[in-house]
């Protein structure tokens, strides 16, 4: 899976219609709705603002697409197919159309919206998505130095630490390194927190 870190906008004119594709990172549906409202305000004279998004959540991947008044299946779905085909998550692509007076037909619309989404993706830098786990654990003071050394090798970070009779830690690290952590530090608690 892949994701984008920055918003990219690109534009093309097809048979006098102007298509503006915007790809932007989003972590939840509230962010998506805020972006769509912003696009709608910025392009209040646009004929259509079709979109698609994919989000990775604790319940799995959720997605939506919307044709925005274009014939069913000719705008949102072609955008979504490019998101899904490139295995992109936590991303929104909106394609804003200013009608130029020439009808494109269903096939033409499907190609135009799909190609606009493809262009936005190709214009973006894609990053590998790494799943993280957040866990709590308790260590003896004597273990702390070795633990911090190993955690750095595992690309993890300490989010919170409390010093009492023992050291209580809240850490975040790539999920693929969790088994190694458990093998070296058996005092780990089975208290896994959902990542946001």
Describe this entry's structure for a reader.
- The strands form three sheets. Strands 2-3-6-4-5 form a five-stranded antiparallel beta sheet, sandwiched between helices. Strands 9-10-8-11 form a four-stranded antiparallel beta sheet, with helices on one face.
- It has two domains: 2-128, Impact, N-terminal domain (Ribosomal Protein S5, domain 2); 132-193, Alpha-Beta Plaits (2-Layer Sandwich).
- Helix 2 (76-85) runs parallel beside helix 3 (105-122).
- The longest helix is centred in the middle third of the chain and has 18 residues, at 105-122.
- The chain has helices spanning 29-42, 76-85, 105-122, 144-153, 178-184; strands at residues 2-3, 8-14, 17-25, 48-57, 60-66, 91-98, 127-128, 132-139, 157-163, 167-174, 188-193.
- It is an alpha+beta fold and 196 residues long.
- It contains five helices and eleven strands; from the N terminus they run E-E-E-H-E-E-H-E-H-E-E-H-E-E-H-E.
- The chain starts with a strand and ends with a strand.
Percentage of residues assigned to helices? 25-40%
CATH domain class name of the largest domain: Alpha Beta
How many domain units? 2
- Secondary-structure class: alpha+beta
Keywords:
196 residues, Alpha-Beta Plaits, four-stranded antiparallel sheet, 11 strands, 30% helix, elongated, disordered C terminus
Task: Summarize this entry quickly.
By secondary structure, this protein is α+β, with helices and mostly antiparallel strands. The chain is 30% helix and 38% strand.
């Amino acid at each position: 899976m892949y994701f984008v870190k920055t918003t990219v906008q690109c534009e093309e004119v097809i048979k006098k219609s102007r298509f503006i594709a915007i790809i932007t990172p989003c972590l939840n549906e509230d962010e998506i709705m805020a972006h769509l409202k912003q696009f709608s305000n910025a392009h209040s004279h646009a004929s259509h603002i079709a979109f698609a998004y994919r989000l990775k959540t604790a319940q799995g991947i959720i997605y939506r697409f919307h044709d925005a008044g274009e014939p069913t299946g000719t705008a949102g779905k072609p955008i979504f197919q490019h998101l899904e085909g490139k295995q992109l998550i936590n991303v929104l692509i909106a394609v804003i159309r200013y009608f130029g007076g020439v009808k494109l037909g269903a096939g033409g619309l499907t190609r135009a919206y799909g190609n606009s989404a493809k262009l936005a993706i190709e214009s973006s830098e894609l990053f590998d998505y790494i799943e993280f786990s957040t866990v709590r654990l308790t260590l003896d003071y004597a273990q702390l130095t070795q633990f911090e050394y190993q955690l750095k090798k595992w690309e993890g970070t300490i989010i919170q630490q409390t010093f009492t009779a023992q050291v209580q830690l809240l850490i975040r690290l790539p999920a693929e390194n969790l088994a190694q952590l458990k093998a070296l530090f058996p005092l780990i608690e089975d208290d896994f927190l959902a990542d946001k």
